[in-house]
Structures are given as C-alpha cells and as structure tokens.
Design a protein that fits this description.
single chain, mainly alpha, 4 helices, elongated, IrrE N-terminal-like domain-containing protein
Length: 97
C-alpha cells in the first residue's frame, strides 16, 4: 500500500485502463495501445518504480517509529486490533535494562 501511496506523492502518471483506451481508440485493440505506450515508457516506468519503492521504504521506517495513540475506539480501534497494534512502543524506543 505504501508503494502505491508513494506513486501518488510523486505525482506519477499511471497507464490508462483498457476501458478508457477503448473510448479513445475505438478501432484499436486496447492491448496494442497499451503495448505501444509501454514501449516508450520503459526507462521512465523503471525510474518511477525505483522512486516509489525507495519512498515506500522511507515511509515505512518513519511510520514504524511513530507510537499509535492508546485506546482507539470504533473502526480505528478494530483496525489497530486487527493489525496487532500494541500499547508498547517499538523495540528501539523501549528503555534498555
């Protein structure tokens, strides 16, 4: 999920879906159009993927350092329980004994 959020943060443009392509190019097979678009974007797409991966990693590290609020209720509380949320801070924030 963080990878996709990173694409949005960078403002990366996604390739259109086949329904959109059919509307734009009704006489062409949408797969042919996608293939043609992809051929011109190979290096561009690789760079976008690298940016998204690195950004997602950095976001994940930053999120791991955050301490979630305690005692969440409703939907947020259920989500925290489902994801294994804990009232204890991550290992690197615990007091060493």
């Amino acid at each position: 999920m963080l990878h996709e959020i990173a694409h949005m943060l960078w403002g990366h443009e996604l390739l259109p879906d086949t329904a959109s392509l059919t509307g734009l190019f009704p006489d062409l097979d949408p797969r042919t159009v996608l293939d043609a678009l992809s051929l011109h974007r190979t290096g561009y797409a690789e760079r976008q993927e690298q940016q998204a991966e690195m950004t997602a990693s950095l976001l994940g590290q930053a999120i791991d350092r955050l301490q979630a609020p305690r005692g969440l209720s409703g939907s947020l509380g259920r989500l925290q329980d489902a994801l294994g949320g804990s009232d204890e801070p991550p290992d690197d924030h615990r007091e060493r004994r």
